[in-house]
Write a structure and sequence with these properties.
Elements: E1 5-9, H1 13-22, E2 28-33, E3 45-48, H2 54-63, E4 66-69, H3 76-83, H4 92-98, H5 101-110, E5 118-121, H6 124-128, H7 130-134, E6 138-142, E7 152-155, H8 158-167, E8 173-177, E9 183-191, E10 197-199, E11 203-208, E12 211-217, H9 222-238, E13 243-252, E14 255-262, H10 272-275, H11 280-289, E15 302-308, H12 314-318, E16 323-327, E17 337-344, H13 348-366
Helix pairs in contact: 1-11
The chain binds adenosine monophosphate.
Adenosine monophosphate binds at residues 116, 139, 146, 149, 152, 176, 178-179, 184, 207, 210, 259-260.
Length: 367
């Protein structure tokens, strides 16, 4: 029987966890990444090159059956060129929309999915109309290359808005109304060959400084789950999407408001490794290779804590019952995601208490 081979552009922690999920299924992986010592390098061979290097991508396409990627800001032109040689999943078209916050919001609107009110900013003249349309505060975000809260500012006055746009470098931007949300939620879907579609339970996420800190699953609300599943299902079908798709929402008293989407496995789904019958990583691999999807059912309520900037002492966390350590093997740097902890517990109240204890413990150890 032939061994399926998966090419992954980007060998960060997401690629590494994809490869770790692929190997038990007898699937081989290859990476292209800028750096030889990337997290994926301990799991599969890395062809070291720029991520849009045509020759390296062509070599990758020649060696594998399907190409996927672990970064959102992958070159869409490179993906389109690759797609002429080998199947590329998820959809380069949808990935292109997700790279541009304005196109992303317009896409949500075209599916009648609620979003924050927004104004496109291409010149300083566009700033003048913002307060009338959006009120205060206003969230100003660069249209491209923003992630983990980078490239965005929350402002409360016209002067601060003008200054913030200059600080962003006068780049094309989007100004959004501030959404007074009760909590942030995300939904992960996975779509396979022949339109097979599955969803994980809604997950509740907490951010700090724009970076995801914790995720807890499941967030149980059958009506919201159904509504969000309907939206993701429609988007995925429209783009003949394969693999995992994540949409992040604000939960407000008026319902869900879509904030952004990630056309790939997502940090808010890391809990699925221990908490679901099939992890998001395994299901992404299955989906992009056209293999049957695995069950997305919850095994046990689960919570995830990102390890940012520094790692806790290994012994201190491995001794805690129900706690799982994922160390991405990255050099410590402030604000850098170095690993995560997952905690599973059948008792949801206890799960939350234990998560809070873990957060406190990691924070005090990290100084
Ligand atoms: P983003 O880069 O769009 O995911 O934003 C990072 C975080 O900033 C979000 O998870 C929210 O916590 C916050 N945020 C972004 N946009 C808004 C908004 N329009 N209203 C309120 N909070 C926001």
């Amino acid at each position: 029987m032939q061994v399926p081979r998966l090419g992954i552009i980007g060998a960060g922690q997401l690629g590494r966890m994809m490869a770790l999920a692929a190997y038990p299924l007898g699937i081989e992986c290859r990476f292209v990444d800028r750096q030889a010592e990337s997290p994926g390098g301990l799991v599969a061979a890395i062809d070291v090159a720029e991520l849009d290097d045509a020759a390296a991508l062509r070599r990758l396409a020649d060696e594998v059956d399907v190409v996927t990627f672990d970064i959102e800001n992958v070159s869409i032109d490179a993906l389109r060129t690759l797609a002429a040689h080998k199947p590329v999943h998820p959809s380069p078209e949808l990935t292109g929309r997700a790279q541009d916050r304005l196109a992303e919001k317009q896409l949500f609107a075209s599916f009648s999915i609620p979003t924050a009110r927004f104004v496109a900013i291409d010149s300083s003249a566009d700033l003048a109309g913002c307060p009338g349309t959006l009120g205060w505060p206003i969230v100003l975000k660069a249209r491209r290359l923003g992630y983990d809260g980078r490239g965005q500012r929350i402002v409360e006055s016209a002067d601060a808005l003008a200054a913030a746009w200059i600080e962003l470098g006068r780049v094309p931007a989007i100004a959004e109304a501030f959404v007074p949300f009760e909590r942030e939620l995300s939904l992960l879907s996975v779509r396979g060959a022949d339109g097979q579609l599955a969803f994980y339970p809604l997950t509740e996420n907490r951010h700090r400084d724009g970076i995801l800190m914790t995720s807890v699953a499941p967030f149980e609300d059958a009506a919201l789950q159904r509504q969000a599943e309907g939206w993701l299902g429609e988007i995925a079908a429209a783009f003949d999407y394969r693999g995992v798709l994540c949409v992040e929402f604000f939960h407000t008293p008026d319902g869900l408001v879509a904030n952004e989407m990630a056309p790939r496995v997502h940090n808010s789904g890391h809990w699925t490794i221990e908490g679901a019958e099939t992890s998001q990583f395994e299901n992404h691999v299955r989906g992009v290779l056209g293999l049957p999807l695995g069950s997305t059912r919850l095994r046990e309520p689960a919570a995830m804590l990102n390890l940012i900037g520094s790692m806790p002492e290994r012994r201190s966390v491995l001794g805690l019952p129900g706690v799982h350590l994922h160390d991405y093997g990255k050099a410590p740097r402030p604000q850098r995601k170095l690993g995560h902890l997952t905690i599973v517990d059948p008792d949801r109240d206890r799960l939350r208490q234990r998560l809070e204890q873990l957060v406190a413990g990691v924070e005090s150890a990290g100084g």
